## 1
Amino acid sequence: KAAPTKRDYETLVELDKKHFLHPTSPIKQQQEDGPAFIFTEGNGIYLKDIHGQELIDGLSSLWNVNIGHGRKELGQVAAEQMSKLAFSSTFATFSHEPAIELAAKIAEITPGDLNTVFFTSGGSESNDTAFKLVRHYWKLKGQPEKKKIVSRRKSYHGVAMGATSATGLQPFRDFTTSLAPDFYYVESTPESFRAFIEAEGAETIAAYISEPIQGTGGVIMPPKDYFKEIKSICEENNILFIADEVITGFGRTGTYFGVEQFGIVPDIMSVAKGITSGYAALGGVIISEKIHQDLIDLSDGLFMHGYTYSGHPTACAVALKNIEIIENEGLIDNSKAMGEKMLEGFKRIQDKHEIVGEVRGLGLMGAIEIVEDKETGERFAEPLAPSIVAESLKRGLIHRGVIYEGADTLIFAPPLNINEEEVEKMIQIIDEAITAAK
Ligand code: PLP
């Protein structure tokens, strides 16, 4: 076969429909309409499509392009690493500098004694690894019956078998007929968790997992002091606490990691996305020194879990450069400052529109609730978020509407290098889109 030449737009659309099964997608609509956009370039907070239209990437693509698009330094680092050592394994006792340097850097920036990293290729692999790790840990400790994983309703932890099983959002679980056993969901109150422990027995529970702020569920903030209470319940009952920082890590909430906002240090942390700002596929699971030492001391000698791409040299080199940019350009402080501006803008929208209920945000994660009745918070029978999202798109802003499980919520998470003028532009578009969709 000859190498493909540059194709015309209509051909690309037909090939997309026929040959490309899109992840988490409206499968029938894709067959009817083809791709909504075929993107060709990115620069700062903007994406450009094949027709030259520029759109604000109001969700940092999938909450991951933290440093913004088009950073040539990352391309350069990747090219240099690929030319020098494109790949070598980290299985067994083989190693390489990018993985060592990145592991050390992550130990430095993560809170408390979270000092050892296991690398993965993304968030789902990170959470599956965390679930296997906690079960392995309790097995080594002589308590193999301690294997239940508890997560929260409305949580999202990814789509690998364990990650989906831990996901509290029903539509993701309904996709398949059977899931992994021993996964349970609790309401977001300490009482619900306590009642679960009471009913099941702490001796059967391996770990509790939660996002510091639930992202996919609709940027849902935890109740005040919730995590402090959950952490002490975990400690009282010998249950490990896994923080899923896949979205909230690397500056998203205005601190390096989301848990810092709530004054707790988890036993295990899952990361991905912002670790490379999406410039390469990488994730990780960071464990406490205590767990690491137990894994060594109690082991029969073999650690039987690893992905081919655990610690991929190019991805690690890209992550190191990405973290350097986050630090050198003060993007965590900018996330806090611009997050405050974004929330101020949401409040102006709330004051102006009858159909805007609660607005909320922390750093550059924010949400606007659409309601029929501002007083009672009652929602429309038919959610408005999809038409508002469509109106935003027409005006050059990409963001998401959440309508799972009765929600009618607009969610936002722009790149951390957004400036004040760009925040204002987003606010203006959201304001117009709500007016148009009413
Ligand atoms: N955990 C959280 C909190 C996420 O938001 C996501 C993805 O959105 C994942 C895990 C899964 O990550 P990935 O899509 O990289 O597998």
## 2
Amino acid sequence: AIMPEGALREVRSTCPYCGVGCGVLIKTEGGRITGVRGDPDHPANFGKLCTKGGALHLSAKPELLPQVRALRPELRTQRDAPRRAVRWDEALDHVAQRFAAIIAEHGPDSVGFYISGQMLTEDYYVFNKLAKGLVGTNNVDTNSRVCMSSAVAGYKVTLGADAPPCNYDDIDHASCLVLAGSNAAWSHPITFRRIEKAKARRPEMRIIVIDPRRTETAELADLHLQLLPGTDVALFHAMLHVMVWEDLVDPAYIAAHTSGYAALRERVREMSPAAAANLCGLKAEDIVTVARWFALGAPDATPQTRQPTLSMYCQGLNQSSSGTAKNAGLINLHLACGQIGKPGAGPFSLTGQPNAMGGREVGGMANLLSAHRDLANPAHRAEVAKLWGVADVPALRGKTAVELFQAAADGKVKALWIACTNPAQSLPDQALVRRALQTAELVVVQEAYTTAATVPYADVLLPATTWGEKIGTVTNSERRISRVRAATKAPGEARDDWEIAVDFARRLEALLPARLNGRLTLFPYATPEAVWNEHRESTRGRDLDITGLSWATLERDGPQQWPYPAGASVGKARLYDDGQFPTADGRARFFAEAFKPVAEPCDARYPVALTTGRLRDQWHGMSRTGSVPRLFNHAPEPCIDLHPSDLARRGLSDGELLRVASRRGDIVLPARATDTVRPGQAFIAMHWGAEYLGGRNAQGVARLGVNGLTLPVIDPYSFQPELKHSAVRVEAAHLP
Ligand code: SF4
């Protein structure tokens, strides 16, 4: 409940940025958010906040509202007309009628929902049920596809379930820590501070960083493997080759708890350190060293005195056309050495977004179902249909993020509902996404912010609440569920995401009564807690069972980890400590996929390998952080990082405006000479959209950002696109 106007108070909530999931105390005065500090009692951050989290209140200033927020529903019935402000009833009636008409004419798979890891678990649950239960399509996917889906697939193909086995305390127990494809110093700053502290306390702890760039994270490493982009699988296979050759694996663990080892051992036979060194651009002796450190946990340990190794990894492994093989390649190493299920050991995927994990829990993706069930499993579909009270859940896999927009561009998906995300900036191949938004007959955008790239395409704009205004739950990287609480009133006519979806669903139910299966409504919720209770029940007997964790328990005891089954008094901190895995035979499986090069190798026309990533003080497309001037102190403007030798070879100089072109588009931005990238490589931060990189066109649509260059090729298991590598060329911009 909101306190009376004028009262000073603090509200306990969670940071809406990264997957560290820090607890925050939001200060309010007179109903306004006036400050923020770290929650000293939250186990993810113990009172600390990074620069982004510490500036949250500055992004919530009421005076910013007219500039950055969507405040009332808007509608246009003709594509080229401006939208006009309308009442909620008119907007939702219109959308329900258009959806019903399109579904009646073209079938349920002619509509699609594209949602977000920024949403709360309750929002996610309702959207998933709306698509799969009421509409009868699995075309519901999320921007977490672009973020975490390879981690999901990697865990599932090896350990049998999408469950990170570790927790943040493991940092304090690890003897060897591997950071692969993760610039945690910038992307997960509070977790990184804990790593720094552990290293300062125990300098003998070995830190290995695997990253094509020499990042701030790499500065802490005892050994930085600056591999060529996309070659991680070759490296992991070569590390296993060394472990096998030098008898560093744990044969007892392999025999008792795994299957498929012989095939993997055969696979890595040819990947010697020398062969991998050639593919990865590394020294063979460094590959041998990291293999030994990883297997034994410490340089002087033996297989009898093995010390724990923890690996933490993120988008460098995930955002790849071989993302699943990269994730599984690293998990293979943990299984081969028994480096899992004990303090300080295990494969720990760092989630990018604040609630990518919650979205996975409710099955809010085109190939998943509630509570880690699989769409491809008929028994799982029947369980979910029974839970929801519908006749069936369709079997056909829905279209994943890139596929959904491709289908819209091809005219197959005719109505797109986009909630809490900015795909015209953040998905690869922006030109394709924009074609999709132009081709679709109906584009609904449900947003808190008037994003420059996507909102101009909206036929209907539905204003949503955001951090500080809404209530629900999120789950962080270590499976810890935290409450999100409102500290101030919703601005204008903004409504909560779950509530908008329910209001729409009830209207659609009146137009599509067949899917109701005789029920009055599938959406009988008056509060987020009611949604949470249904989600909770869906987890009964599953690996993430939270039937013992009520809303009241979360209120009373604070953030809790799953699983938390009925009868438990605390969640489970570490998984697989008994060597039992959620597979048919209880064994983890080795994954023996061969190394595959990047989808778009560099060539004479496009000779530079471009990778993209985050900066320390910005978040995603800057819809929130972009309104806080002090967050630009760290990096005031976008640029392309290039090695000085690459600039010199082309007669270009530091600071000069360059045109960067791929096969899909081109952008203009200044060069930054730096040896943090290797010759032949380039880096551009993902945050700046086109407001900066070329302004808006006559229709008010922002021009291309960095994802105008990137590639929409996807991993065959996770369907995650290869945002970490595309081939580009750079030249002087020669602007008029
Ligand atoms: Fe927020 Fe992540 Fe920073 Fe914590 S580390 S304050 S969750 S952005």
